Amino acid sequence: QSALTQPRSVSGSPGQSVTISCTGTSSDVGGYNYVSWYQQHPGKAPKLMIYDVSKRPSGVPDRFSGSKSGNTASLTISGLQAEHEADYYCCSYAGSHTVLFGGGTKLTVL
Amino acid sequence: EVQLVESGGGLVQPGGSLRLSCAASGFTFSSYWMSWVRQAPGKGLEWVANIKQDGSEKNYVDSVKGRFTFSRDNAKNSLYLQMNSLRAEDTAVYYCATLFGPRYFDLWGRGTLVTVSS
């Protein structure tokens, strides 16, 4: 049950795009199309941004998109805004009704 | 209003016990898998446990197996996490969340802080 691997930090300027990667194994990310992404602002509860690799819940803007290739999933945020500065976590189904989170990525908007 | 509200956190000595609760409202609680997710101070999210709609299946992260017990009362729209033999590394904010699928968390509570320290 090792955590999925995410970069500790990424950054970008307003209006730019950034991509956050999430690497697992064939037992989790690579084995299922069940990767989700969460945004967490300081002192707040996480918020679901992407589920099932690339689906957006109602209310999440289409500037947030997800994809997967092999054992690595990615979250892309286009048109960066100051409000996007937060921690982002990936999560994957890992079989037997268990899930695994990534270590988290701090997004800084320059 | 659709919400989850956790309670029961606090300061406990190593080796002690604590019982967390989570009250659900505004949705059909008995239709959802439910989970606890924790976050140690300054650290990332960690899935702790989940429970099936009728309570017939429970799953735990290895580090809490044998120490934590997850239960639910659908008549009261409530969850409970009994935590025994607590360790310093259990110190965290504990969130309850709905687990759709069960593969993603779509509704989260605000969390309750558990501090294990002498």
Task: Write a structural description.
The complex is a heterodimer of chains A (110) and B (118). With 110 residues, chain A is mainly β. Chain A is 0% helix and 44% strand. Chain A has no helices and 9 strands. Chain A has strands spanning 9-12, 18-23, 35-40, 47-50, 64-69, 72-77, 86-93, 99-101, 105-109. The model of chain A has no long low-confidence stretch (mean pLDDT 96). Chain B has 118 residues and is mostly beta strands. Helices cover 0% and strands 54% of the residues of chain B. Chain B has strands spanning 3-7, 10-12, 18-25, 33-39, 45-51, 58-60, 68-73, 78-83, 92-100, 104-108, 112-116. In chain B, strands 2, 4, 5, 6, 9, 10 and 11 form a 7-stranded mixed beta sheet that branches. In chain B, a hairpin with a 3-residue loop joins strand 9 and strand 10. The chains are: A mainly beta (110), B mainly beta (118). Chains A and B meet through strand 3, strand 7 and strand 8 of A and strand 5, strand 9 and strand 10 of B.
